[in-house]
Batch of 2 targets.
Target 1
Amino acid sequence: MSKIIILFSLKFVVLFAIFPLCANAVIYNVQNFGAKPNNGRDSTKAFLQAWSLACSSTTPAMMFIPRGTYLVNTVAFSGPCKSARVTVRIDGKIQAPPSSYWEIGNYGTWILFQGINGLTINGGILDARGSPFWICRRASAYCPQGATSLSFNNVKNGIVSGIVSIDSQKAHMAINGCKTMKIRKVTLIAPAQSPNTDGIDIQSSTGIKILDSSIRTGDDCIAIGPGTKSLLVQRVVCGPGHGISIGSLARSPNEAGVEGIKVKDVTLTGSDNGLRIKTWPKPSNGFVKNVLYQNIVMNNVRNPIIIDQIYCPGTKGCSDQNSGLKISGVTYLNVSGTSATPIAIRFHCSATTPCDGIKLSNVNLTYSKQPAKTFCFSALGTSSAGQLGTSLSVGQLGTSLSVGRPTPGSCF
């Protein structure tokens, strides 16, 4: 059984897991290839050598990073691997170079795993030293593009457990073109004011599970992009940040759709948004369908439930067109807590492509100890067994096209 050690610091609490070495695996210790902890020297080459041997092993193999702090520059661990499963065990801290502002910021990714079938990553701390990059972004100076701390491209049958990622330049984690991955017990931390520090970005991926994790960042807790299917998010705490977002979508007219999303047993605290779906006001063949939000607790969230089909940050690059992206079959079941604003539910759907199949069941949200209000435009659905304040439905569709038996104070 794993031993759990809790480390306290002035800034955060780190849950550090020490996993037992795999008895049947061939172990490649990065220190045997020249990695020196705690001395400020670049260990990238040693990490790559250990990975190369682990990946080329015909039997189960492990790349092992012992305790200590290791400086690592931009690095890609690539497959395919010969073994059915390769494990990366991190007992120490992997840290970006002191000048990571440029050294990793110019590449878009810091640590990348790609083209691997059967990958396990256990434990460890990733420190991207993102602060200088955020300062540059806030100053509107010439800046590099910024790097995602940990990326997975075309990985199948992956398990990521126990990672602690702090101060990413941009997103902490990105999952692109992956199938059947489990992300569990990860802790992602960046200050509330850090720009674009998403927790986990997902797109073009199927069968992803995000479980038992804590995400406290400056942007989306989880951002669900085009082509995401069969995603489960469960027992996650989120906040500060911008909540759990589907989108933004409809950037281009031919995006892949999003479907089969389940978000369950989640708590959001002090975030700008709670459960958000956002699309640009542009033509699109894309869609969002079959989404379930269940057993959600909101604590002082500014926009607990929001569908925004006129998403246009900074009002740049937007047209006078309506969103062509179709949103249907979205269920909110057992959602409770407090809103930081009077309007807790805001459905602003496309005037030409209305949202339909929206279901509110046992939704209880308050503002200043009173039932919160709702706003609907071009949204069709039903509501039951909850408590909300007065409806502010407007527009050419409004409540006149709502279906089902209306509950007093709801949109429908």
Target 2
Amino acid sequence: MIIAAIIAILIAGGVYMIMQRGMFRLIVGLTLLSHGVNLLILAAGIGAWRFEPLMDRATTDQAADPLPQAFVLTAIVISMASTAVMLVLAALGRDDDTRTTETPERSAQKLRALQTMGREAGHIDPDSTRATKRTQRDDAARGANQHYGPTTKTSSTKGESK
């Protein structure tokens, strides 16, 4: 009876957390749900206490069925891997439909480092107009977001010595 209550609590808690907002709560809910299902599989596979499924210690009619244990072991590995993937996605994700105090411009600036250029990637000559436009755009972005942190600018002219 206690195992059934624990299974019910784990599955109910998992479903409740999945229904909440936020990526972290979703991850916790899926983890609780997977633990509940693993316990359910083990409880369904073991009707009464039996001997270890080792043939030198018990006969086949006295040994426990090793199949549910193998299923649960596989499910534990899969749920651990999927939890790790979801945690990485939550860490790299930009928006999980919750409120934030960050402006969209600041979010776009943070994500610029994560974007790939694909076939458009190439070396930009520092003396080209494209490099000048990029520098102006980056300077404008830094100027709009000055309250997020200090920026370091060096102003020195040619021929000036200190």
